[in-house]
Amino acid sequence: MKRLLQRLLGRLPIGWLQLTHNPMRFAAALIGVAFANVLVFVQLGIMTSMGTATLRPYTFFAADVMISAADANALTDGGNVARQWLLQALADPDVVDGMGLFIGNVPWDRGDADISLTTFGVDPARPDLVAPVIASDLSLLEVQDAAIIDRLARGMKRDETAAIRPQSPLSFESQGRTLTAYSTFAGGGGFGGDGYMMVSDQTFLALFPARRSTAPDHILLRLRPGADVAAVVPRLRNLVSDPTLRIRSYADAAQEELTYQQTKRPTGIIFGFGVLIGVLVGLVIIHQVLSTDVADHLREYATFKAMGYGQRFFIGIVLEEALILGILGFLPGFAVGATILTVMGKVTTLPLAVTPSMGITVFAGTVIFSALSGIIATRRLAAADPADLF
Amino acid sequence: METGPIVAIQAVNHWFGQGSARKQALHDITLTLGRGSFTVLMGPSGSGKTTLLTLIGCLRAVQDGTLRLMGQDLHGANDTTLVAMRRKLGFIFQAHNLHESLTAEQNVMMGAQVHPSVTDDHAGHAARHLLGFVGLADRVDYLPANLSGGQKQRVAIARALVGNPALLLADEPTAALDKDSASDMVDLVRRIGASRGMTTLLVTHDNRILDRADRILTLQDGRIVADQARTIR
Ligand SMILES: Nc1ncnc2c1ncn2[C@@H]1O[C@H](COP(=O)(O)OP(=O)(O)OP(=O)(O)O)[C@@H](O)[C@H]1O
Ligand SMILES: [Mg+2]
């Protein structure tokens, strides 16, 4: 390490020698930085998984435009939309297809674990409005009380769901009805529910007698290939006479829900705040270690100043120390953070993991914030006055 | 090779403090130091010895008068010039001021590496050579904590000399040493200085050192009150 740094710096690696001179303090500093990294990794992992989980249900459908109620901040939030707007929207020449989407939570008492499936009621005759993997099975839903269920749902046994085929369906009781799953798709547990289920709109209305076929939760529209969504949306706005409705491109709707979940909902804010705390903890630890180190070596630095070393040299030492702490602290932080997220992911079946981009972001952040706190710590160097040495 | 005195001081005054607390530490100092000389600066405590040394050593700004160091006027010189000038000087302090995390060799290397042209290998080589010269060949890899006071002061001498300074400034370098170590040290500095044509200005209260000097300057209340040339036996 010493040789490597000496090569890199073209001088004695004074920062390294200084840090390692006091192994206890060095170890404590590294643990501190690693701890801050773990904090950031875990919070960021949860935030990222919240994003993944938020966007996941959007991947089940293949829409270009979504019409929702004014208060529908999330797919599963807000009031209904009158079905008549679907007919009006279809009058636009670029709108080629559309359907009402019904959403409700269906409990499933599985004895050992009661789970709740976010259930979508869709039109089984509209395969072009659902994702291709589901579209091929959509006709199975034509049968009353048929379902396609989430094989990655929390509380479901993997071998049990793997066996579900049209020839070997799985039946279960819910809301006083017997539902039969003929096929599966890949979803997964999220923050709001344990998994997902697709049924026909008819089955949905049977499960939720209070709901009306004329009032779905959202309206999904499919545009002519090559149509410009940005141009269609304002046209639909004029066409649909209820000004309170939210008419957005499907992609915008997903993105707006993500922003809403991460910045407006307490959970998102708490995890975002956790990242901030992690960054601050790291910043404070490195700054504390470095400024103590500078203060402890003022005489030596003053001596170097007297010998003719300039400000750049001292900033170089402090930055060298900052980067050593940042980089060496990151490694265990990454290892522990990744382990915690993997274990948490296993336990919660949330999509928790350290992604490469997360690793790179945290590493870059660690290096930048280390350097930053190093630069702040160099302010103390001014106190090293060589005239005081005599 | 430059000629002329290495230090030429003309009517230098120096004050500390502001307003009513302002106090004059040096009065009208005029002095030249010839190349290769070994000069001892004496005087009671508070007479201004250290102040004069820090002015010559580019560690304080000259307030009044002219101070030429190797031909360069220090009055009003900017920081960059002062830092560059310091690289041509060697300093020995009363305390050794070695860096606790660096070995003897690394401490001495720091004196050489201040010159950007000096490579690592060259600095290491020069450091070991000088440590051998001050009798510490077998201590190059020791940390300061594992050296005696006299050994540490010898490392400090090696560090001051490794950059081949034209002028060595030392402020009571023997104060922390016993009698034998003190005279050994002064002999060492004299010997190296003589062999390299280095000028030495050394502040001391130590009478044992006086008979090693070419010239003895005495300061009192910020004025030079005696300037004796001596012939060495
Ligand atoms: N940084 C300073 N601020 C204010 N006054 C100072 C400062 N340094 C020195 N002085 C004053 O200047 C005068 C000369 O001090 P100087 O340190 O040069 O004396 P000295 O001859 O080196 O003394 P000693 O033998 O005790 O080291 C003293 O009266 C001292 O109080
Ligand atoms: Mg003094």
C-alpha geometry of chain A: elongated
Main β sheet profile of chain A: 9 strands, mixed
Question: How are the strands ordered across the major sheet of chain A?
Answer: 5-6-4-7-3-2-8-1-9
Question: For the terminal residues of chain B, how far apart are their CA atoms?
Answer: 29 Å
How many β strands of chain A by DSSP?
9
End-to-end Cα distance of chain A, whole Å, is 36 Å
Note the overall shape of chain B. Answer: globular
- Name the poorly predicted regions of chain B: none
Order of helices and strands of chain B: EEEHEEHEHHHEHEHEE
Rg over alpha carbons of chain B: 18 Å
Largest sheet properties of chain B: 6 strands, mixed
CATH architecture of the domain at 36-53 and 88-229 in chain B: 3-Layer(aba) Sandwich
Write down the CATH class of the domain at 36-53 and 88-229 in chain B.
Answer: Alpha Beta
Classification by helices and strands of chain A:
alpha+beta
Biggest interface, CB < 8 A:
A-B, 24 and 34 residues
Strand content of chain A: 15-25%
Mean pLDDT of chain B: 90
Q: Per CATH, what is the topology of the domain at 36-53 and 88-229 in chain B?
A: Rossmann fold
Side by side, the strands of the main sheet of chain B go 6-7-8-3-9-10
Order of helices and strands of chain A: HHHEHEEHEHEEEHEHEHHHHH
Structural class of chain B: alpha/beta
